[in-house]
Amino acid sequence: MRWTIAAACLAVSSAASAQEETPAPEPQNVLVEIYRIAPGKHREFLEAIASYDEANRLAGLPPRQLYVHQDGAGWDFMLIQPAHTPDDKREALNAAWDRLGLPSGPDFFFTFRSMIAEHSDTFASGPTSAAAYLARAKDD
């Protein structure tokens, strides 16, 4: 039994050392969107997001990360996605959007906003850790 515990401790210690030696990936710039949905429009909103994610898939881009409210604050959905479309994917995304018949311009605004009671957008950088972020800071 003692050897099993010692072996487990050594394995955990080795794994922790390996993680410390592996540099964290560079944080990415993302867009965080928080939505409170108009009454009765939750399914329609998710169907719209699913269609936008399908356009992303067709263009070779990842889907948005979706978080669904469970308890607490007054939001319904949070989306996290890259802050910008890569230049080499922009044309493919526009073509996928057209292929799926998704609204654009003022039609997008009117259609999408009809589902939303309130929203906020913010640009962020991450994921990271406090230690990694501090390591990037300039010493004064």
Structural overview:
With 140 residues, this protein is α+β, with helices and mostly antiparallel strands. The chain has helices spanning 2-21, 42-58, 87-99, 105-113, 130-136; strands at 28-37, 65-68, 77-82, 116-126. It has one domain (28-133): Alpha-Beta Plaits (2-Layer Sandwich), CATH 3.30.70.100. Helix content is 47%, strand content 22%. The termini are far apart. 8% of the residues are buried. The mean pLDDT is 88.
Per-chain topology:
Layout: H1 2-21, E1 28-37, H2 42-58, E2 65-68, E3 77-82, H3 87-99, H4 105-113, E4 116-126, H5 130-136
Antiparallel strand pairs: 1-3, 1-4, 2-3
What descriptors fit this protein?
alpha+beta; Alpha-Beta Plaits; four-stranded antiparallel β-sheet; 22% strand
Strand content: 15-25%
Q: Helical stretch count?
A: 5
Helical percentage: 40-55%
Category by helix and strand content: alpha+beta
Please give the domain count.
Answer: 1
Quote the CATH topology.
Alpha-Beta Plaits
CATH class: Alpha Beta
By DSSP, the count of extended strands is: 4
Distance between the termini: 52 Å
If you average the pLDDT, what whole number results?
A: 88
- Encode the helix/strand succession as letters: HEHEEHHEH
Q: Which strand order does the major sheet show?
A: 2-3-1-4
Low-confidence stretches at least 5 residues in length (pLDDT < 50)? none
Gross morphology: globular
Reported CATH architecture: 2-Layer Sandwich
Rg over CA atoms, rounded to whole Å, is: 21 Å
Largest sheet: 4 strands, antiparallel
